[in-house]
Amino acid sequence: MAETILSQGVGYGIILGFGALFALGMWYLSILLARFQNEVQGSEMFMTAKRSVKTGLVASAVVSSWTIAATLLTSSTWCYEYGVSGAYFYGAGATVQIFVFAVAAMELKRRAPGAHTFLELARIRYGKAGHITFITYSTIYAIINCVNILVGGSAVFTALTGMNVVAGAEISMSVWLLPVGVVIYTLTGGIKATILTDYSHTVVIYAMVLAGLFIVYTRSDILGSPDVVYDRLRAAAKIAPVPGNAGGEYLTMHSQDGVLLGVLFQKAITADPSATLPGYMIGGLSWFSIPFCLATTFGLAARAMQGLPEMHTITTKDITQGLAMPYAAQALMGTGGAVFVLLMIFMACTAGFSADIVSVAAVFTYDVYGAYINPTASGVKLLRMSHLAVVIWSICMAIIATGITHTTIGVNYLVTCMGIFTSCAVWPFYSTTLWERQNKTAVIVAPIAGSLTAIACWLGSTHALYGTVSIATTSNIIPLIIGNGVSIISGALYSIICTFAFGADDFDWNRLKTEIHIADDSDVKGLTSEQAAQEKSHELLTPQQDLDLRRGKVKAMAIAAVLCLIFVILWPMPMYGTKYIFSRGFFKFWVALTFLWAFGAAFTITIMPLVQGRKTIKLFFTTMIFGKTPKATATLEGVGVEGREDFDYRGRSWPNGARAAFAFTIDNMGEAADLDRNLWPDSQPIGSHHSVTEVLPLFLALLKKYDVPATYFIESWNLSVYPKAVQRIAAAGIEIAWHAYRHEAWSKLDTTAEQDNFTRSFDAMSEFTGGAKGTIGPYRGFRPPGGIIHGDRTLKLCREHGLGYISPSAEQGAVVKLDGGADSIAVLPFKWRTVDAYYYMDAFAGLRKTKGELPEEAQGPDVLARKYIEEIDNVIETGGYLSTLFHPFLTNTPERLQAMEQVLRHLVQRRDEGDVHFWKTGGIGDSVIKSDLGLGHESAGIVVKTGRNVRRLKIGDRVALECGIPCSKPTCEACRTGRYNGCPDIIFYSSPPIHGTLRRYHVHPEAWLHVLPDSISYEEGALLEPLSVALAGIERSGLRLGDPLVICGAGPIGMVSLLAAHAAGAAPIVITDLDENRLAMAKRLVPRVRTIQIQRDAHAKANAELIKGALGCEAKLDFQSIPFMHASFREIDIRCQFRYKETYPKAIMLISEGLIDLKPLVTHRFALEQGREAFEAASDPSAKAVKVQLLDE
């Protein structure tokens, strides 16, 4: 055995000793995090770290995961062979890819926030065949990368310690021992362990970079200054000039092979498009310092010392194995330098291997086992499968790597060849998140055809250039460039050709949000309901998060473009084009730049995670050093709140000697929650939700029947969408309390978003009430959606906004009692056992199972009633307070309504027995809004003045006003999809609190003014608005020529609808009304219409029979009242309409072409100054008015 620098004991000590150290450290840290940070290792925590890793750790993970053995060894070898250009182009080639990854990472996070792997998107987009194709290429890349890591690490350990040689036979011990510690700490801590150990690895690597810089350029007895290094490199160029370099020099950026290798490495490294974490920009810029600074130090030092007695003579085999850096470190720093390099290689290998095996485990668990073998697997099974995948994959990689070490294939060969096989999948991979047009055929054909094309070109060019195909000839630069270049280009070309040749797709990105779900880890031992709820909340993004990621993608694209331009063109090309050879002064500047970059990167990567993780670090030292056991904490989206006993009111005296207090509460109104989660269908109108129109009146009737005071927690968004419903609630004696602006998940709001939510919500209430304190506002209470608050941060905002109480979940550690002072806040918590969603919704299956008191499947109303009553009786028995909670949208069947009535009846019975007191706060009473409101939204006029940005209109144009002004924001789903009438932030003139258009002058946005032709009068222009309502109704109903139609009511809208339906060819047409005069007018307008006067005293069935007879065709009428919740069972089509969209141009055309004549509808005309008389005429039945118009002439 040849003599080595270090003994085998050193090699075994580093691999086994440090492997055990990391394994034990992560095992203990995982215990701490599980106990005190609520980070129990379920499948979600194992694979995604709860999607909670901060930017600093992400950046260090980027640095560490990309710093594999090849980064350290190959970059230094390139610098040894080609000079400064080798170090630069190695770093620049890969850094560009990190920048590009940032764009795809943000888009992946935005479009599929619940994804565990990138490949889950492929399964949804392309089905089984496309999914398997992507799995195959990801696996090929992972095999090459893992084998590369083990082979590279093994080569260094063998060269420096000889540890692979046992009893004269090479059995690759390091290949088998390197993964052992990695597997143990990865199994213990999952991806969080990988990221945390990445940080420690990165610290060691940067320490080596900085130590090398100082030794080579300031302290070494052999070199010791930039001047000595400069002189020796110039001398080396004379002894062994570099072919293709300017003057054969090592100190030049004009290096043909250096540039080609940079391009080659850039293509090869892009084959891993699986990055999905933020922080890539910081990580990319910091990572560049490792190959750039490390290679500039040890690569140039190795070349400068070549021929000196202190320096090992580097052979061709050494170059293949990338050993220039270890030999240089040993020459400069002695045995300590060799140990330091060995430790650094160990760190790089374990970090890269750990990241790869977690990725592979995720693919196997979610994309193979969870997708095809056991789609209903529980969290425990998924976790077991991921652990099994980690072990099996590691064994397989060790077997393959052992075989490779007995060939002439080295780490450099693996790095430069991998792109030939896998880069053809880069374009299809990226297009999966960035291009909705790519189809299934493209993702199957393009990678396979690209691989075959690239391999053929690689081997063909090798044979053509060198006459033979071997490991040696295929590793030459030109064939590698051809193979890698053809691979990535052909993959893109085949994808584009197949997409348009076989029919471009039009993928709906919303499917990624609705079809990728967080795994149910409720059966994982030790997992709390809080962690389960937090993990589930990551399935969907809030609108603010979606907007932030959209903006982030744009910023990332801009930054990536600028940085790519700098790294690829502006920095190196001027020196390359001029064939500049570094002067002594410029080389000193280059060394100084290297120092600055290394210090900046080291400071950023080492300090930022410490700052962001300071609370966890404090926890660690408190427990480990000082022996203190901290109290358990509840994780409130990164804000720890000290856990306390569930807040209760036991022992408190209640009015009239009652034993307990109860709050009957109601949550959620209308579409707010579905809109916030992007679940509301675009085709559905807003403002007529069944829970408001159908269920709410039943709630109010029951509460009135049993005389039970209640609190309704509504979203402030509803104040403008359902103002009349809010008034009815308050008029019924129910307190109006606050439930966020649009049901945003409170735990996911950062500081700014939380502040904005308070401001927006309270401004909405102020506008609703006209700023006056009354029976509706301001809010007195607050219940956060999801039940979680941000500790003192939220409570401080509650006090600032004058809230008197909060109602969080008592079971999620969010309850904090604030005593004393006039601004103290009462805490009225709720329990999931008295929340109807806990029983009725499938989403709560995990929580039901965790509590162990109910089966996983949804429960019926009888179970809810029984459990509620048990809770009520228990609280009365023990004394205290209980909040019962119902959702109108869930109480949507007679059986569920009966269950609620059963609970109310029991509460009232116990109240009458003197056991119960109902908790009440303000907001009960009359709901009249005492503020003025100008009316009018049917208007036409003339332009008398234009703003500076008006382009289409000019003074004197006659226009009709469309009075619904949507927000037109790109983030608004309704506006973006053309359904602007459903915009949640639409401003509609004359809808409170916006004044209407009955005024002489009115300022209006140009986009919502429609020019009138000369053939249309102002009177008709004003009637375009009701005509738009009618046209939108006809379009929504799908009315066709010859379809029968019933119009209920011969008011203005009914009359306009009659004219429009007549023009559309409906037949027969029936119109009904109570007023015979209006029916007579309808007959005059459309003589063929069949009129029916509804009799007030007649039974509804009798009136319906009249309508049936008037239709004169087969018709089936169900004379029962039909609740919305039964419509689906009876297969009844109920189409609702909310205002209109894009109807004004069509309405103008119909009037100008004479197809519809609206002038007869105007029965009364008044001057603008006669407004009172006009309204009196409109409200006086004897005036027989249809449309009353105010004219300003």
- Structurally, how many domains make up the residues? 3
How many beta-strand elements? 22
What structural class do the secondary elements suggest? alpha/beta
Q: Supply Rg.
A: 37 Å
Protein name: NodB homology domain-containing protein
Transmembrane segments: 12-34, 55-75, 87-108, 129-151, 171-191, 203-220, 280-302, 323-347, 385-404, 410-430, 442-461, 481-503, 556-577, 589-611
Family: Belongs to the sodium:solute symporter (SSF) (TC 2.A.21) family.
Pathway: Carbohydrate degradation
At a glance:
This protein is of the alpha/beta class. The protein contains 43 helices and 22 strands. It is 57% helix and 7% strand.
Would you write up a description of this structure?
With 1193 residues, this protein is an alpha/beta fold. The protein folds into three domains: 8-436 and 507-614, Sodium/glucose cotransporter, CATH 1.20.1730; 642-918, Glycoside hydrolase/deacetylase (TIM Barrel, Alpha-Beta Barrel), CATH 3.20.20.370; 1023-1156, NAD(P)-binding Rossmann-like Domain (Rossmann fold), CATH 3.40.50.720. 57% of the residues lie in helices and 7% in strands. The protein is built from 43 helices and 22 strands. The strands form eight sheets. Strands 5, 6, 7, 11 and 12 form a five-stranded parallel beta sheet that branches. A three-stranded parallel beta sheet has the order 8-9-10, with no helix packed on it. Strands 13-14-17 form a three-stranded antiparallel beta sheet. α7 (173-219) packs across α12. The longest helix is centred in the first third of the chain and has 50 residues, at 324-373. The radius of gyration is 37 Å and the shape is elongated. The chain starts with 7 loop residues before the first helix and ends with a strand.
